[in-house]
UniProtKB/TrEMBL annotation, chain A:
GO molecular function: clathrin binding
GO biological process: intracellular protein transport; vesicle-mediated transport
UniProt feature, compositional bias: Low complexity: 1-17
Biased composition (Basic and acidic residues): 637-653
Keywords: Membrane, Protein transport, Transport
Protein name: Beta-adaptin-like protein
Biological classification of the source: Eukaryota, Viridiplantae, Streptophyta, Embryophyta, Tracheophyta
Domain Beta-adaptin appendage C-terminal subdomain: 719-836
GO cellular component: clathrin adaptor complex; endomembrane system
Organism annotation: Durio zibethinus (Durian)
Coiled coil location: none
From TrEMBL, chain B:
Record organism: Durio zibethinus (Durian)
Name recorded for this polypeptide: AP-4 complex subunit mu isoform X1
Keywords tagged on the record: Membrane, Protein transport, Transport
Principal location listed in the UniProt entry: membrane
PROSITE patterns, per database record: CLAT_ADAPTOR_M_2, MHD
Family: Belongs to the adaptor complexes medium subunit family.
Cellular component aspect of the GO annotation: clathrin adaptor complex; endomembrane system
Name of encoding gene: LOC111286701
UniProt xrefs under Pfam families: Adap_comp_sub, Clat_adaptor_s
Keyword Transmembrane in annotation: no
């Protein structure tokens, strides 16, 4: 135990400054040390209390160590406890003096009172001094065999403490196997629970170096152990139940009847008043039924009521923790919760972090039948005194509008926001109207009429201003004053601090110019001049580019800057589905509250006992750029590109140019922007190119006469892989992050393969012989995870594979990403044939 | 698994600090307190109960103005840690009788004793007040409950809304009556927090009851107890939306949407005769939590009018009507209403002969506040206020003000009609007849009328 915070804060009058008081105490303790006078224990108690209270507030009382130890020779248990507490706090900084305490602690470990034995053993193990470990082994050994369960309970945790001080001493003394024996045989459930905690920690730490430990860790989730624990689950304390339930989620049942047995056994845990037990049970249910779609859905229905009850009972903190989990489930399966929307209404006195979750849930569950009511409710919040929440409510209305087909009523509401004459409401609403118009151009008439009435002087927020300017440019033919408003904005160029706004202004003036040249010519000239002189690089570049392209050919310029637009149909999700899945895998943990997978906020050594290694974690998702990863099947690239604001677009181009099948090679020169534009058009007409067989997509391209800039070569009938391919991990990570998933499949693994897959290494060697190389692997039976790569023999074109093999279900889940997507099917076939030969001699 | 546990006062002083694993650097208490205090620069937003600073996760719950905090580096279940913190607070309260800063400071050695047994090396060992008794040797230094201070200016730590009504019981589980005998008694509190939202035309938009049956037992020898609830009680609103009011009105049955039970409760005969059997552990604990969206009669009707009354002036009229029997009295009622933010002055006019009422205009957040000491069932109270504005209002004035919210406590009244029909204690002898207290209370959770 490290000493408590020894802060340097200035002493307040109520708190003693330290020095003189401590030396005073020292003196008094000395006087009492040898005394046997009656009542001396009471005076000692008072003194000890003072020492402990100084310790608590952060005054360093370690200088009293000797005196405290001298006074500790007592039979008064209250005194003993205070002394133990003190010694535990300061032994680490006073190892020499701490040696003095060993003696009396060892003696107490043999006391006839089990209470004293336990206390002494706990304190002995809490000293955290490496030199003392030899003194621990003996008492721990007898503590584990003690007839009293309290002592055994303490001893088990003592073993874990010893392990953290000196792992080798702990392992050499064979303590882990004693714990294992206790876990399976002790009559006291808390002893069992402590064994489980200790063994999980010890074996997880050892597993990286010892195969045996890794096997032992596996054995914890074997059927006999799981069943043994499950059958006694009601005897465990609620906290230990959580521990057992967490372990059960790792267990893979052999068939569905086993799954139902476990679920029936745990059914009543859902009625527990302790939210942690309920969430742990829910996690078991969700994980057990992942592959059984119908039952999985029933589980959602079943857990709804208990979750809602937990949210509304208990302290606000507890209900927040549960609400975060409910939020996760609602986001995964909004349709199941669509009739419960009233539970997600905000209460006026809830903290913002709760309201925010609820707003997102309301947005998610909105459908045809409840939209009207939800939007009405959200509009109430828009007038809220809590401005951040009011803003988010307006955004929520906008999001609902964008996900609905019938937006009639919502558009009216949004337009009403514009008339509310509150700056922040106007600002938010403008941004929304802009997005709305991009999806529903048919509403432009109604919206433009209202937007036209807004004075640009009342709009200060950059995002809102940019939105207004975008609309002025886009609909300049319908807005009488557009050129003049833009002109006045251009005149105030120097006062515009946001580069985003200036970029939009340039583009808007260009667009306006194409539609109403005589009225805009002046403004355009001024804008281009100001833009070229702008200190901001992007603004400067764009102005220069516009200038040159206009010089080159005005009609080309119009095709580049103001091409006919396709309405946006789907919004890019801010979080990749991979991240969401991973958070779901980590249900009932902080990941859910933070909405981030654990590798983003924990160090490697502090992850749970059964997680994949660090490097795999990073590989499969890939840091901050994750936002831009869009799975190809779900969201069309063209939408994404159109929806990003200009500045974001620049970033994406920069980062995704190497390899995405949708993006033309972008060399940074202005001419290729044109190529990009045509390319986007081609992607619009054929957004799912990647999913089609390569031949088919080529045929369509030919038909349209577009000719992709980097037309994929027809796949050679036999794909040849480079036997000596090389790829360094960082490039792999980078590519994995950039590329969309080309193929996602599930294969069966042959029984021989399952049998051969005892450790990841076996498969690695096998795949290598097929020119498929492993870059990272992890996991233990029954779940393994691999990242492979391969290269085409004749060119530097890579295939990246994520492969998760479950030996219990004999299934392999494959995700393939490829530089050249047209050949990913061929590669998949090759991969599958290599995998199927695994284990067959 | 947690690394540290500590309790901070409102000013951020360590009252108790226990480091269990030594894997988190010192100074966490300071880091934590600064973070909580200055979560957002504008001070508008509260820190969430869980956050991460430099790889250390901080969990906290607020109990009677104190911060109970745990830290860890591991990705643990947030629910588990927050439950644990709440439970630790409850165990401490069980032992100290009164939980506040003063009692904690006076009894910190006892608290350390508890903490050592509740958690070992970061793992929970037991939170049972009962089990802990055999490990605890310090005796509590009793703090006078009457000195329970109002929590002072540090209002950010007030839990205001969801706080349980203080159980009147402020006796330590270790306490003995003079003469060394324990008084045999058991308390059962039915506490209902209600949330109602009225539309501007007075319709009920949403309503919910969140109830708890709280028990605190001082019975020696742990006799078995049977708690009988309404016989016509039913659980789960089969199929359909839980908000389908029509299906439930009319019939007199009490229909719970859902409920959960304490570990000790046995439900063997619950399906048959709606009785809960349990051997109550020592200390305070919830026997059952329940949730209800069945229609109920809201205890108060709120009527609010706001009208322009000439140049830069407006008038507000607030009316509150108590719709419960006249032998019931609600207390500590506060009605609040946000006013347009260009309001500069408010003058109030109470009804003639009003007693125990106060009015206030909170300049800082432009809020009207009306406090009433008590309201007798069936009565009606009105407040008029004249507002002065600093600028002309452009839009509809009702869009700039409200909604009206209300807090109150109604003792011996519950809206759900859930009842404890009887409380049976297994008899040890014919003369054994412990005191039984069954009390009901209804509190506002979120009681709002839109205007």
């Amino acid at each position: 135990m490290a000493p408590p915070a020894q802060s340097q804060r200035s002493p307040s009058p109520s708190q003693p400054s330290g020095k003189s008081e401590v030396s005073d105490l020292k003196l008094q303790l000395r006087q009492l040390a040898g005394s046997r006078a009656p009542g001396v224990d009471d005076s000692k108690r008072e003194l000890f209390k003072k020492v402990i209270s100084y310790m608590t507030v952060g005054i360093d009382v370690s200088s009293l160590f000797g005196e405290m130890v001298m006074c500790s020779a007592t039979s008064d248990i209250v005194l003993k406890k205070m002394c133990y507490l003190y010694v535990g706090n300061y032994a680490k900084v006073n190892p020499d003096l701490a040696l003095l305490t060993i003696n009396f602690l060892q003696r107490d470990c043999n006391d006839e009172d089990p209470m004293i034995r336990g206390l002494a053993l706990r304190s002995l193990c809490s000293l955290r001094v490496a030199n003392f470990v030899e003194y621990l082994v003996g008492p721990l050994g007898s503590g584990l065999k003690d007839s009293n369960s309290y002592v055994r309970m303490v001893a088990v945790i003592g073993v874990l403490k010893l392990y953290h001080i000196s792992a080798s001493t702990c392992v050499d003394a064979d303590f882990p196997s004693i714990l294992k024996h206790l876990m399976l045989n002790d009559s006291d459930t808390q002893v069992v629970a402590n064994c489980l905690s200790a063994l999980q920690e010890i074996w997880s730490a050892e597993a990286s170096t010892s195969e045996e430990a890794s096997r032992e860790r596996e054995a914890l989730i074997s059927k006999p152990v799981i069943y043994y624990l499950l059958n006694r689950i009601r005897e465990f304390s609620e906290w230990a139940q959580c521990l057992v339930l967490e372990l059960v989620t790792k267990y893979v049942p052999s068939d569905s009847s086993e799954i139902f047995d476990i679920m029936n056994l745990l059914e009543d845990r859902l009625q527990h008043a302790n939210g942690a037990v309920v969430l742990a049970t829910i996690k078991v249910f969700l994980h057990l039924t992942l592959s059984m779609t119908d039952v999985h859905q029933q589980v959602y229905e079943r857990i709804k009521a208990p979750l809602l009850t937990l949210v509304s009972s208990g302290s606000p903190e507890q209900s927040y923790a549960v609400l975060s989990h409910l939020h996760l489930l609602v986001m995964r399966a909004p349709y199941i919760f669509s009739s419960d929307y009233k539970h997600f209404y905000c209460q006026y006195n809830e903290p913002s972090y709760v309201k925010r979750l609820k707003l997102e849930m309301l947005t998610a569950v909105a459908n045809e039948s409840n939209t009207y009511e939800i939007v009405t409710e959200l509009c109430e919040y828009a007038a809220n005194v809590d401005i951040p929440i009011a803003r988010e409510s307006i955004r929520a209305v906008g999001k609902i509008a964008l996900q609905q087909y019938d937006v009639n009523a919502i558009v009216d509401r949004l337009l009403q926001f514009l008339e509310m004459e509150k700056d922040y409401v106007t600002a938010e609403a403008l941004v929304l109207v802009k997005d709305l118009l991009r999806k529903y151009p048919q509403w432009s008439h109604d919206c433009i009429a209202v937007v036209g009435n807004i004075s640009s002087k009342n709009v200060q927020e950059p995002k809102a201003k940019a939105a207004l300017i975008w609309m002025l440019g886009e609909y300049s033919q319908d807005m009488q004053d557009a050129p003049y408003i833009l002109e006045s904005l251009v005149e105030n160029w120097d006062e515009e601090h946001s580069a985003e706004v200036r970029l939009h202004l340039l583009t808007a003036v260009m667009k306006c110019f194409f539609k109403r040249p005589p009225e805009t010519q002046n403004a355009l000239g001024t804008a281009l001049a100001a833009g070229i002189a702008d200190f901001h690089q992007d603004v400067h570049d764009r102005a220069l580019f516009y200038y040159r392209i206009l010089q080159y050919n005005v009609s080309v310029a119009e095709r580049v800057v103001n091409p006919p637009k396709q309405a946006v149909s789907v919004f890019a999700d801010t979080q990749s589905s991979e991240i969401k899945d991973r958070i779901f895998d980590e249900f009932n943990s902080l990941s859910v509250v933070y909405q981030k997978p654990s590798y983003m906020f924990t160090d490697k050594e502090h992850r749970g006992p059964f997680e994949f290694s660090d490097e795999l974690g990073n590989l499969s998702i890939g840091g901050e750029a994750a936002d831009n990863v869009v799975s190809a099947q779900r969201v069309e690239e063209n939408d994404k590109d159109l929806l990003l604001t200009t500045s974001e677009k620049e970033e994406t181009r920069g980062s995704s140019n190497n390899g995405s099948a949708y993006t033309a090679p972008y060399d940074g020169s202005s001419t290729s922007v044109f190529a990009l534009q045509t390319h986007i058009e081609s992607a619009i007409s054929n957004p799912t190119a990647a999913d089609h067989s390569p031949q088919a997509s080529l045929a369509i391209d030919d038909l349209l006469g577009l000719g992709l800039p980097a037309a994929p070569a027809p796949p050679s009938p036999q794909l040849k892989l480079n036997t000596t391919a090389a790829l360094d991990p960082s490039t792999f990570q980078h590519k994995w992050r950039q590329l969309p998933v080309a193929l996602s499949q599930e294969y069966s693994v042959s029984p021989q393969g399952v049998a051969a897959l005892t450790a990841p290494q076996a498969l690695l060697r096998h795949m290598q012989s097929h020119s498929i190389h492993c870059i990272a692997s992890g996991g233990q039976s029954p779940n393994f995870k691999f990242f492979f790569f391969a290269q085409k023999a004749e060119e530097a074109s890579n295939y990246l594979v994520e492969c998760i093999i479950s030996t219990s279900s004999a299934k392999a889940q494959i995700k393939i990403k490829a530089d050249d997507q047209s050949t990913s099917q061929a590669f998949s076939t090759l991969f599958q044939s290599a995998l199927s030969k695994f284990g067959i001699p | 698994m947690i690394s540290q546990f500590f309790v901070l006062s409102q000013r951020g002083d360590n009252i108790v600090f226990r480091d269990y694993r030594g894997d988190v650097a010192k100074g966490t208490a300071e880091i934590f307190f600064r973070k909580v205090k200055f979560w957002k620069e504008d001070g508008q937003e509260e820190a969430p109960p869980v956050f991460n600073v430099d790889g250390v996760n901080y969990f906290h719950v607020k109990v009677v103005g104190l911060l109970f905090v745990a830290t860890t580096r591991v990705n643990v279940s947030p629910s588990l840690i927050l439950e644990l913190l709440q439970r630790v607070a409850r165990v401490i309260k069980d032992y100290l009788g009164v939980l506040n800063e003063d009692s904690l400071r006076k009894n910190f050695v006892l608290v350390y004793e508890l903490l050592d047994e509740v958690i070992d090396f970061g793992y929970v060992q037991t939170t049972s007040t009962e089990v802990l008794k055999s490990y605890i040797f310090n005796e509590p230094i009793v703090v006078d409950a009457a000195r329970l201070q109002p929590l002072g200016p540090a209002a950010i730590f007030m839990q205001g809304t969801k706080r349980m009504p203080g159980t009147a019981v402020t006796k330590s589980v270790l306490a003995n009556e003079p003469g060394g005998r324990k008084r045999e008694e058991i308390f059962v509190d039915i506490i209902e927090k209600i949330s109602v939202t009225f539309s501007s035309s007075g319709y009920i938009l949403t309503s919910e009851i969140d109830g708890t049956i709280q028990m605190k037992s001082y019975l020696t020898g742990n006799p078995e107890i049977r708690l009988a609830l309404n016989e016509d009680l039913s659980i789960g609103r089969g199929g359909g939306s839980v908000y389908d009011y029509r299906s439930s009105s009319g019939a007199g049955a009490v229909i719970l949407d859902d409920c959960n039970f304490h570990e000790s409760v046995r439900l063997d005969s619950f399906d048959m005769d709606r009785t809960l059997a349990l051997i109550p552990p020592d200390g305070e604990f919830p026997v059952m939590n329940y949730r209800m969206t069945q229609e109920f009669k809201p205890p108060f009707r709120i009527n609010c009018l706001i009208e322009e009354a000439g140049h830069l002036k407006a008038e507000v009229s607030l009316k509150v009507r108590a719709e419960f029997p006249s032998d019931i009295v609600a207390n500590t009622i506060v009605v609040q209403m946000p006013l347009p933010n260009y309001t500069t002055r408010v003058s109030f006019e109470l009804e003639p002969g009003a007693v125990g009422q106060r009015t206030d205009f909170k300049e800082a957040n432009k809020k009207l506040e009306w406090g009433l000491k008590k309201i007798v069932g069936g009565s009606e109270h009105t407040l008029r206020a004249k507002l002065t504005f600093s600028q002309e209002s452009h839009a509809n004035i009702t869009k700039e003000a409200g909604p009206v919210s209300m807090t109150f406590t109604i003792p011996m009244y519950n809206v759900s009609r859930l009842q404890v029909k009887y409380l049976q204690i297994a008899k040890k002898s014919s003369s054994y007849n412990p005191f039984r207290w069954v009390r009901y209370v209804t509190q506002a959770n979120s009681y709002v009328a839109r205007i």
